[in-house]
Design goal:
Helices cover 42% and strands 20% of the residues. The chain contains 13 helices and twelve strands. Bound molecules: guanosine-5'-triphosphate and magnesium ion.
């Protein structure tokens, strides 16, 4: 699962990523896409670590791409941006980082420009595909019927984009969605907007109505402050946060939001060796969850001993849970829930 942070130049993408990953900020003018592994904050792991004193604790992570800033002010900037946009078509989600700090910030305009460029990049993809399919459908290939159907769909997508409608409005069936999934249309990806703002403005984010689809979540973040805080030792951090009247770091919440927008939840494993959170898609069954740990556990799956983190916290220990009958034995088809603590019984 990969998330790409994109935005205009100097909007604070690298600062935001540094605040959640601890990575350094690449120099201004850097042209390569950098990848960072970002830990997903989870208080449940801290609690379990205190209970089990494991040799190690492993949290879930999200891979984030720090994409160099786009400059749409001239042709060469646009071409460079288009190359970068085409490189990130494989990602699962977009975070649009918009500059909201400083007197010269134009967040609404920047967001609008960014969305227009994404749409134009998708239009280019559609047009190229139509040219190719138009030639291909005249050849008696095995895929002729499929190619014809895809061509009809691509023409619908083109019409939608030209009418300035999102391409999702032109896709009517799952079969249609399947047909174009692998092309990586960016305007079809889940996304959210992060407004990078000054501390003083965090409670009054700019009005984006008319520019942004109301279903897209918007979060406010003070990337620079968060990044500075992330560099401090825990004690100074607590002190500094108290001085500023901050109780929670927005950066951690930002990562949690990415995680859930990706459709991910965590099941947990705990014991003397390791306490760990495992990312799975919502709706994953126990049999597949077992496979995340090891293919042998999936192959030899017998049952999953399962209890919820909340129940453990309430009762204090596994022994107590057993006494009150709150440890269940689940089969392969059980739909795993966020915060389930699982112990797979298997034989190989
Ligand atoms: N005042 C203020 N400055 C910020 C904030 N976030 C970033 N900056 C500054 O803005 C500049 C750009 O930050 P970066 O994080 O490098 O921005 P970027 O989007 O990665 O830039 P490019 O990769 O060059 O497009 C730096 O000088 C930061 O210190 C913020 O929240 N408030
Ligand atoms: Mg950067």
């Amino acid at each position: 699962m990969k998330v790409a942070l994109i935005g205009l130049m100097q909007s604070g993408k690298s600062t935001l990523l540094s605040s959640v990953s601890g990575r350094g900020i690449p120099p201004v003018g850097s042209t390569s896409i950098e990848e960072a592994v970002v830990p997903v904050p989870d208080e449940r792991l801290d609690w379990l670590t205190a209970l089990y004193s494991p040799k190690k604790t492993t949290c879930a992570t999200v891979d984030c791409l720090d994409v160099p800033g786009f400059n749409f002010s001239d042709d060469s900037g646009r071409a460079a941006a288009r190359r970068l946009i085409n490189k990130i078509r494989i990602i699962d989600m977009l975070v649009l980082v918009i500059k909201g700090f400083g007197p010269d910030a134009t967040p609404k305009q920047d967001l609008s420009n960014l969305q227009t460029e994404l749409l134009l990049a998708d239009l280019e993809l559609v047009t190229t595909r139509i040219d190719k399919l138009e030639k291909q459908i005249h050849k008696p290939t095995k895929t002729q019927a499929h190619d014809k159907a895809e061509l009809a769909l691509q023409i619908k997508l083109q019409e939608a984009i030209e009418a300035e409608k999102p391409i999702s409005t032109a896709i009517e069936t799952d079969a249609e969605l399947d047909m174009i999934k692998s092309l990586g249309f960016l305007t079809l990806k889940p996304m959210f907007v992060a407004i990078n703002t000054d501390e003083s403005a965090i409670d009054k984010l700019p009005d984006l109505s008319g520019v942004l689809d109301p279903s897209v979540p918007v979060v406010g973040i003070c990337a620079k402050l968060e990044q500075e805080l992330s560099q401090l030792d825990p004690e100074s951090k607590t002190e500094f946060m108290a001085d500023l009247g901050i109780t929670e770091l927005a950066a951690g919440r930002f990562v949690n939001q990415c995680y859930s927008a990706l459709g991910l939840i965590s099941f947990l494993t705990s014991g003397p060796d390791e306490v760990r959170a495992w990312p799975i898609r919502k709706g994953t069954i126990a049999h597949d969850a077992a496979g995340k740990i090891h293919s042998d556990i999936k192959r030899g799956f017998i049952r999953a001993e399962t209890f919820s983190f909340d129940a453990l916290k309430e009762h204090g220990s596994e022994k107590e849970l057993k006494a009150v009958g709150k440890i269940r034995l689940e089969g392969k088809e059980y739909v795993v829930q966020d915060g389930d603590i699982m112990n797979f019984r298997f034989n190989v």
